[in-house]
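Tutorial handout. Part one gives the primary structure; part two gives the three-dimensional structure as tokens.
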Amino acid sequence: MNLATLLITVASGAAAAWGYARPARSGPLAAIVAVWWLGAAWLAGAFVRTDLGVAAVAGSSSADAPLHLRLAAIWAAPSGSLWVWCTLVATGVAVVAHRSTFVWARRSAAGCSALLTATCLLGANPFATPSPIPRRGAGLSPVLEHGLMTVHPPLLYAAQAATIAAAVAAAIAIGRDGGDTLDRPAGTRRAWAIPLAALAAATILGAWWAHDEAGWGGWWAWDPVENTALTPMACLVAAGHARTGRAALRWIAAAATAVLLGVVVARTGWASSVHAFAPSRGPAIGLALFTLAFVAGWITLARRRPACPADEAESGMLTASPHRPGPLRVATTVTAVIATAVAVVVAAAEVAAAWLGTRARPAVLDPVWAARALLPAGVLMAVALAGWGWRRHHGAAATIAHLGVAALAVGAALGTGSSAVRVIAPLDRAVSAGTDTVRWTGSTLAQSAVDDPGADRDRLVLHVTVSDAGGRAMSLTPMIERYPDLGSTRSRPARAQLGLDEIEVAALYADDERATIEVRTHRGLLLVWWGAALAIGGVGLAALRRPALRAAEPAERSVQSDE
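Part two.
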């Protein structure tokens, strides 16, 4: 055990013990948050300095990398990403518990911090020292040297932490009075809208990244981590459509449970995933215990009922005659449930296949099969959501969000008509590629490679002309990046927009006489991007309309006993 690990262990344990023994004070929770962020700051400093005495730095960073990639290497390292995730979760839980007036909430925050610290330090210690200490760092994989590497992972972790924090706030509301002080579901709006907007933004950024990397198979050919991200989003959407405040709180708790289960299954080594928090299953036990404790606590609180049912009726949450949703709302709910069920079943099957060893490569979701499976649900959802958004007078935010989801669903449905044709093109000869014609007119070495022959990579630029059936010609310049030190290559495609469709040309191989070129047509892809942007914008606007869900009892500031 090195000095950093020892100090973090002692400080975290002392802060958690202080918080459990003195829940009435604010100092312990502040100390818990400070320890987590001091650990993150120490780790960030090690990555910025390229301190090869830290195993996480030696395995994921290098001194010649630019500053933003050295910082991004924090969450590229499995143990570093686990520390960042736990830091955000512990911070969110502590902030919510600080606003609470219950002893059990503050003690639970202290216990949460202690369990997560043990999970990090025992399962995947980011402060460990390598043996022997290498002379230079391994650096990031070329596919991770992408601009979105600095945005997508931390945004996803923050969204998951916000979902868990919202569920803790919902648990406190349920524990206080059954959740019945919320006279309308709109009182929970920020509790579901903020995590939903962040999750959707992180997901669509990951989709674009996967689309931009030619070897990842497309914008939805993802591994179990991204596949399991669908379920919490579906639960948060259900919370936004709940008829009572109590129902919205339960859906928020379901979303947090889905986040935790997804992390346990897809990031602990149980499923084959490039996003795992550790190469082994070390963190699995701690995260599984955290998930079980969360679910058990929520089940216990959900069984509580308000002391006076008559007050519930007077509050307007429940009326004597139950609400009967209209046919459009029923259609929306049914299709959303069908789509979610299919996504969960497919993701579970892929995870099970990887876990049982029936697949040699990491489990991925086949985009063509999934798109065809979701086509009926997507078409119905487009009609139902668009009609519901106009029929129900919920303002501009809801209308924008529903139109965005409808556009995204239509784009995904059109995507089933996408195609990919691979051809071998001789130099300066036209070759048929489906309905298109491809002509490769030559290749040039990128100027950066000419100026710096000792660079770690060079770029071969191919000059390709693609003519469609209508006679329109497009000049594109796909590239092949070659990494002599790694003995590998990487295709960097070129793209052109034709209406709602996108033409993508990827160069897979080239020599002096011939080139292997793949022409891909992505149908309706523009609708996917714009639809997602509209949906995220609409949800974000909805989050600005109402005050946040309060976790504390407004009429009393002293810490209460849970008895």
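Part three, for discussion. DSSP finds 18 helices and ten strands in the chain. The beta strands are 419-426, 430-433, 436-445, 458-467, 473-476, 479-483, 488-492, 494-498, 501-510, 514-522.
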